Automatic annotation (TrEMBL):
Keywords: Hydrolase, Metal-binding. It comes from Arthrobacter caoxuetaonis. It comes from the Bacteria. This is TatD family hydrolase. Belongs to the metallo-dependent hydrolases superfamily. InterPro entries: Metal_Hydrolase, TatD-like, UCP005295. One of its GO terms (molecular function) is metal ion binding. PANTHER family: HYDROLASE TATD.
Length: 292
């Protein structure tokens, strides 16, 4: 089994997590820029964080055979803090760096005018740099937040096929699918979405344009939720090809639109275990639009 976790915050995880993920089949991931758990007090703290995502964290993942990519953004929660908003002027110089595959996480937390402005501006940057956008839906007022998200996308220059709307549940998945955007699901131990509910959603809505992630961070979360989702899909009647579509090919297809994915095996690690239909790396369709 090969797994690409499209949304996981490895800065908050240990090297034991990297080892367990590799053992379970995780070979690539995307780490979105997000809130660190307490307020940042200056733009400089963002700069240090972005540099760490693109330098130290990529190096740390590589020690365990996993390709690390990142998304860069001012997150919705901190878009409300005047001390943080000036980082929008610094973000463009990061969007062309190696390993950056999207603008994100952007979207809404408390549905404020400041969040609206930051969201729209960062969609402009996504269009300018021809990057996908990773959108965070709010924990509160999720339906209203999702609808406003889709309205802003429609008002932007970004095609919905370049947008994943994340942290979905049964209440808002249909509107995202109808809008033509990608549907993101974060599988958590107690909140957001679990494996069995996700399997039911897949039976109703299909496996196309679906991204399943662990979104693991400092809170109660599990970096192997992608693995348990794969097992639940098989138990729920999906085929091994369906699992591969959701947990590998779909993330590759979405983030591959950036032209910045790097999926060749880490030197010193055997890539043969990623075999199967269409799984070789050189000259393969996996790398269509992907930089090796």
């Amino acid at each position: 089994m090969r797994i690409f976790d499209p949304h996981i915050h490895m800065t908050s995880r240990t090297t034991d997590d990297y080892a367990a993920m590799y053992e379970a089949g995780v070979r690539a991931l995307v780490e979105p820029a997000f809130w660190l758990g307490q307020p940042r007090t200056s733009v400089g703290s963002f700069i240090d964080y972005f540099d760490a995502l693109l330098g130290w964290e990529r190096f740390r993942a590589a020690q365990y055979g996993i390709r690390h990519h990142a998304t860069i953004a001012l997150n919705p929660k901190e878009a409300n803090d005047p001390r943080c908003v000036p980082v929008l002027e610094e973000i463009p110089r990061y969007l062309g760096k190696e390993g950056v595959v999207a603008v994100g996480e952007i979207g809404f937390d408390s549905m404020t005018p400041a969040e609206d402005r930051a969201f729209s501006r960062q969609l402009e940057l996504a269009a300018e740099f021809s990057l996908p956008a990773l959108v965070h839906t709010p924990h509160r007022e999720k339906l209203r937040g999702t609808q406003r998200t889709l309205d802003i996308v429609r008002e932007s220059r970004v095609d919905p096929s370049m947008v994943v709307v994340d942290h979905l549940n049964e209440t808002n998945v249909a509107m995202v699918k109808d809008a033509g955007a990608w549907m993101g699901f974060s599988i958590y131990p107690d909140t957001k979405m679990d494996e069995e509910r996700l399997v039911a959603i897949l039976h109703e809505y299909g496996t196309e344009k679906v991204l399943v992630n662990s979104a693991a961070d400092w809170g109660k979360s599990d970096p192997l939720k992608t693995v348990s989702t794969a097992k639940a899909m098989l138990t729920g009647g999906f085929s091994a090809d369906d699992v591969d579509r959701v947990l590998w090919q779909n993330p590759v297809d979405f983030y591959g639109q950036s032209g910045a994915l790097i999926l060749d095996p880490i030197p010193g690690f055997d890539g043969e275990e990623l075999g199967g239909a269409g799984a070789t790396f050189e000259g393969n369709s996996l790398l269509r639009g992907v930089r090796a």
